[in-house]
Amino acid sequence: MRKLLGLNLEELGAVAASVGLRPFAAKQMAAWLYRRRALSIDEMTDLPKNARAALAEAGWTVGREAPIAEARSTDGTAKYLFKGVAGRDIESVYIPDRDRATLCVSSQAGCRMGCRFCMTGQGGWQGNLDAGAIINQVLSVPESESLTNIVFMGMGEPADNIDAVLRAVEILTAPWGLAWSPRRITVSTIGKLDGLRRLLEETQVHIALSLHSPFATERSSLMPVEKAFATRDVLAALRGHDFAHQRRLSMEYTMFAGINDDLRHADALARLLKGTDARVNLIRFHKTPGFEGAPSDRATMERFRDRLNELGLTATIRASRGEDIMAACGMLAGKAKTNKNECDE
Ligand code: SF4
Question: In angstroms, what is the span from residue 338 Cα to ligand 1's centroid?
Answer without folding.
Answer: 9
